[in-house]
Design goal:
The structure is a homodimer.
Chain A (H helix, E strand, L loop, with lengths): L4 H4 L10 E12 L2 E8 L9 E2 L2 E3 L8 H13 L7 E8 L9 E9 L16 E5 H5 L8 H17 L12 E2 H12 L5 H10 L3 E9 L6 E6 L3
Parallel strand pairs in A: 1-6
Antiparallel strand pairs in A: 1-2, 1-4, 2-3, 2-7, 5-6, 8-10, 9-10
The structure holds a DNA duplex.
Chain lengths: ~230, ~230
DNA sequence: TCAAAAGTGTTTGGGTTACACCCATGG
DNA sequence: CCATGGGTGTAACCCAAACACTTTTGA
């Protein structure tokens, strides 16, 4: 049987390969609302516009796609990004005028907003936090990034709805009130306290951190952490 | 502000780009069961093993990723693939010994099994249909393809559960019984007739094709098609 | 004694399953 | 008449939302 092309001489040198990038939808909770991190583009294309932070895939450095996303987070934002998840890949001819064909793998992350310095030195661009829902509807963003943000919001809210909680984003130990407030901020709507807590312990997601309390003016709240397994 | 690398000289020639491929999990319903299409590998690596059909991304031919998947379907299987959906991308260093770094974008398709000729001439390899659930658990498949099949099954069954129906896979007009049998085959479990139909028309998914019937030995069945928008 | 934290309880509803049962129809 | 297609009705269930309420606690 005759051989198919990529089996006979299958090195990547045989065909031109796409300009391959990682873009990251970095989310955070800021003042009770979900925000997304954008960077201002210093060069064409879309010079001066706001865009998702991203970077080129480096096959000499990156073990796999997830590692590439972690590296891009560290290089461009100076932080190890938690709650990282691949969302989708998009690729096509006219997505980015810098290359004839560009493939972007989109990731989502969730970080405490204080962890990112919006005025970093070195090779980092100016960054800002923007209300996520507004960014998702903002047609002025560079490339197709508004759409990507919308997709990330949908996926992320679905996770919270299903109580797939962002433990890597939360502090080691947290109160139920903090957890609920965090979920409410991400969903953009109010949750019923008792229903929320019932769901939590039906699923055995949390365990109390014994003896620990956190001080308020009144009764201190029990601290919890993720149940191990 | 100094520029970041991909803004200063961002052509894809600056860094080596990954060997980029499309792999397709082609599903079909065969004798009431869900099957997946595998091709036997003629060359190393994994010579003689069964693998998902796939092909190299051709940036000179493919307008975008979806177009690439369609082209690969036509070139390798000889068919326009319906119900095509991107599932995920996986990339890494040691996935495929033919290249230092390989990125695969995985697609799912659903075709009538008769549409594919398992003994094609030309550049096509030997193909066979395998029970999907068994393939997903078969560690002998090439690369990480068993895992990919598992992912495709999960996504596809989720769609059926939510009544996102494979209209492109069904005939133009079909009876409710056919539709239910198709869904049952894909889910691998029985569905209650009356509940299934109630859900269908609560959602207004179908419209009757007037005057049309299909003959059986008994009362003929009403034909339906997808409600337009 | 106050106000937040934690927990209890009940009602309500949506959506789904499972099952029983009806009528219609063409051979 | 029979087996299938189409349809009605209903009880049960799960899950979650909504709301009201009690108890605990530290300042």
């Amino acid at each position: 049987m005759p051989k198919s092309p990529e089996d006979t001489m299958p090195t990547s040198g045989r065909h031109e390969m796409p300009f391959t990038r990682i873009e990251i939808v970095v989310l955070s909770v800021i003042e009770g609302r979900l925000g997304v991190l954008l960077g201002r583009r210093a060069q064409a294309p879309y010079q001066g516009r706001w865009a998702l932070p991203g970077g080129v895939l480096r096959i000499d450095q990156d073990k796999d796609l997830d590692a590439a996303a972690r590296r891009v987070g560290i290089e461009r934002l100076g932080v190890e990004l938690p709650y990282l998840r691949q969302l989708t890949a998009i690729g096509g001819r006219s997505r980015d005028p810098r290359a004839p064909w560009t493939l972007s793998v989109i990731y989502r992350a969730l970080v405490p907003f204080e962890a990112i310095d919006p005025n970093p030195g070195k090779r980092l661009e100016a960054l800002k936090w923007v209300a996520a829902d507004e960014a998702a509807a903002d047609a002025r963003l560079a490339f197709d990034h508004a759409e990507r943000i919308g997709g990330a919001l949908e996926v992320t809210r679905g996770e919270i709805d299903r109580l797939e909680l962002p433990f890597e984003f939360l502090p080691q130990a947290f109160t139920l009130g903090e957890l609920q407030a965090c979920c409410e901020a991400m969903l953009g709507r109010h949750l019923d306290k008792s229903s929320f807590r019932r769901r939590l312990d039906e699923r055995n997601l949390l365990e109390a951190v014994e003896g620990q309390m956190r001080t308020g003016a009144f009764r201190p709240a029990q601290l919890y952490r993720r149940r191990c397994p």
